[in-house]
Design brief:
alpha/beta, N-terminal domain of TfIIb, Rossmann fold, Dimethylsulfoxide Reductase, domain 2, 4 domains, seven-stranded mixed β-sheet, metal-binding
Length: 661
């Protein structure tokens, strides 16, 4: 047996791991105590990589649908057929009839798929952005004037952290990385304060110094009250801002009495939180899917979180929030050339079938995919690693739409409900079978990059994802060789190209396993950008209007939840059940008892799962985890119920009722 140093690619925390291997068998994964970022920490998901690699339903060779049935085939036959059919569709209906869905942690494969998408020239691009994350880049765009650049907390130095709708002890954060979240939260609580705003007493809330449990979908009221009070007494005077009068008018209705009543929390608790905010040097705030999946409320809540950080002097300052300059793609090199985005937002034309659903950051809303297919506008879909059946809204309309496609090609490592719908299944190397670098370098908690060699040889006929898309591009007549030649390039050759302009070159990263650059606070390029803009834009009209239009939520609503042994549509084999958390009073009202099967109904559909009657969740909230096939929350959603600004579908705050199954 021998041990290989690697890093985990289950989530964006990318913790350092040591993998014990015997022959072609992966024995065990444990934490790398010498790793400079995670220091030996691993979670249950990362330690399950051996089971993922040896999964009984793993895909080992290409599959192609023939006479309605999926059959094993060879790579040449599969790619020849896929290329021929895609070329025919492009010739008949144009490149815009081909759509891509991007969701993968594989760096080389992701970049090659992007290159193929660009070569085809189709505007039809989808990703998880419009499933759980549009509010953060939107507020960055409108308030900060930079496209898609979200802040992240200075976890090493902050002494006041507010966590709104996020449970990092389980999720490791949202759109950020937080290795060893339990230790991180405990350390911050020891040297200062950690407040959790969440309708459930989460695993993170149990470690916090304060917990406020508002009604679901009313986080904005809590933050609007805090902003109102800080504007009156407590804002840092030396922070450059614009729109302060408009902001003050927007939050004026959120008095202590009004905010407490709307959020259904005691006034004394709100006052205690406000006093803590006033006393803090600066306030660092992290939000998660409990915020970002609430459609229009997400935009308003994220905006007010940014405003509170701006007013307390947290932006681009030690102990507050910093902006990642990138490692492979270096943002700060633009200097005064970093473009200032318009206060109206960076939007573009959307799909023809849903003209009200505009494009945001060059992506279309996932919710429109069935309509585009039904209208005949999208004839083929290339799925880059997504579990569409468990992640996209309104499953009842999504599945028939996918079945109507002329071509549905998907890359995957394990057979699942999505691959069973495909016309072409492209088995790619799993995380332990390929050398890799950290892909989303701007999601890291540090300005860094990591490298891992392949731990084991690929099973069966699995190929590198970049090779698959390069070969497909060749069959379509596109030369994607600038990223790698499928005839001669190795995986490491492609990774070296991806790091050609990075802060540290590939050979050095590969030799050491990681590289880190200084995290400068304050970063001059951020301050210069805000100065050129005339100050942080506190009151974008779009967000002010959305705040004034919000109505109180329904008495009983569904809210999302992450699990320790589940990640979206992955890791079913770890046995995490789809338990539905219900407050005892809501259980009594519906006649539902603990451990019983319970049906949750919305206006659009229903699902059935196991009831867990628990006082840790407040009345009015029904908490259901994502990613389950047997209790698929997408069946409660409505593809027409979206935030028309960003295309974000409503995944939280959906009115529901409870019934004995």
């Amino acid at each position: 047996m021998h041990t290989v140093r690697s890093f985990c690619r289950i989530c964006t925390s990318v913790c350092g791991i040591l993998v014990d291997v015997e022959g072609d068998k992966v024995i065990q994964v444990h934490g790398d105590k010498d790793h400079p970022f995670s220091h030996g920490y691993t979670c249950a998901k990362g330690r399950a990589l051996p089971q993922l690699h040896h999964h009984p339903d793993r895909l080992e060779r290409p599959r192609m649908r023939v006479d309605g049935q999926l059959q094993d085939t060879g790579w040449d036959a599969c790619l020849d057929d896929l290329g021929t059919r895609l070329k025919d569709i492009i010739d008949r209906h144009g490149p815009e009839s081909i759509a891509f869905y991007f969701s993968t942690m594989e760096s080389a494969g992701f970049r090659m798929a992007e290159a193929l998408h660009a070569a085809i020239g189709t505007p039809a691009k989808f990703s998880p952005l419009t499933i759980d994350g549009t509010a953060k880049p939107l507020v960055s765009d409108l308030v900060g004037g930079f496209m898609g650049l979200s802040g992240r907390t200075d976890l090493d130095n902050t002494d006041f952290l507010m966590l709104v709708g996020v449970n990092p002890v389980v999720s490791h954060g949202h759109a950020i990385s937080m290795p060893n979240p339990t230790g991180t939260v405990r350390d911050i609580a020891k040297r200062g304060q950690v407040w959790v705003i969440d309708p459930r007493r989460t695993e993170t809330a149990r470690l916090a110094t304060g917990h406020l449990a508002p009604r679901p979908s009313t986080d904005h009221a809590v933050l609007a009250y805090l902003v109102r009070e800080i504007l009156r007494d407590g804002r840092k005077p030396d922070v450059p801002v614009q729109g302060i009068d408009e902001l003050a008018a927007a939050v004026e209705p959120f008095t202590l009495a009004h905010a407490a009543a709307l959020a259904d929390v005691p006034e004394a608790e709100l006052t205690r939180l406000c006093e803590a905010v006033r006393a803090a040097k600066c306030v660092a705030i992290e939000t998660g899917t409990g915020v970002t999946m609430t459609a229009d409320r997400a935009n308003v809540t994220q905006w007010l979180a940014w405003v509170l950080m701006i007013l307390t002097g947290a932006m681009n300052r030690p102990g507050g929030t910093w902006f990642h300059p990138g490692f492979a793609y270096q943002l700060e090199v633009f200097g005064d050339l970093l473009p200032i985005t318009p206060i109206e937002g960076s939007f573009g034309p959307g799909p023809r079938s849903r003209p009200e659903a505009q494009a945001f950051i060059n992506e279309w809303p996932c919710a429109v995919l069935p309509d585009e297919i039904d209208a005949g506008n999208i004839r083929a879909l290339i799925n880059v690693g997504g579990s569409l059946v468990t992640c996209m809204p309104e499953t009842g309309k999504l599945i028939p739409a996918l079945q109507r496609l002329e071509v549905f090609a998907t890359t995957e490592i394990i057979n699942n409900e999505t691959t069973e719908l495909a016309t072409h299944v492209l088995p790619t190397k799993d995380p332990l079978e390929r050398p890799d670098i950290t892909i989303h370098d701007v999601l890291s908690a540090r300005v860094s990059v990591q490298y891992s060699p392949a731990v084991v040889e690929p099973v069966g006929e699995r190929r590198s994802m970049w090779w698959v898309f390069a070969e497909l591009g060749r069959r379509l007549g596109y030369d994607l060789g600038t990223l790698g030649d499928p005839d001669s390039s190795t995986d490491d050759d492609v990774l070296a190209i991806l790091l050609a302009g990075a802060r540290v070159k590939y050979d050095e990263v590969a030799a050491t396993g990681w590289a880190e650059a200084p995290q400068d606070l304050p970063a001059p390029w951020v301050d210069e950008h805000i100065e050129r803009m005339g100050g942080w834009r506190l009151a974008p009209p779009l967000l002010v209007d959305q705040l004034s239009a919000l109505e109180p939520p329904a008495p009983l609503v569904f809210v999302p939840r992450r699990q320790r042994k589940k990640l979206n549509g992955q890791l079913d084999f770890m046995g995490e059940r789809a338990e539905i958390l219900i407050h005892p009073d809501d259980g009594i009202a519906a006649g539902v008892v603990d451990g019983q099967q319970v049906t949750v109904r919305s206006a659009n559909g229903e699902l059935t799962g196991i009831a867990k009657v628990d006082e840790s969740i407040r009345r009015g909230a029904v908490s259901i985890p994502h990613g389950h096939h047997d209790a698929n929350v997408n069946r409660l959603t409505n593809k027409d119920d979206i935030d028309v600004v960003t295309g974000m579908v409503r995944y939280s705050g959906i009115p529901v009722s409870l019934h004995q199954a």
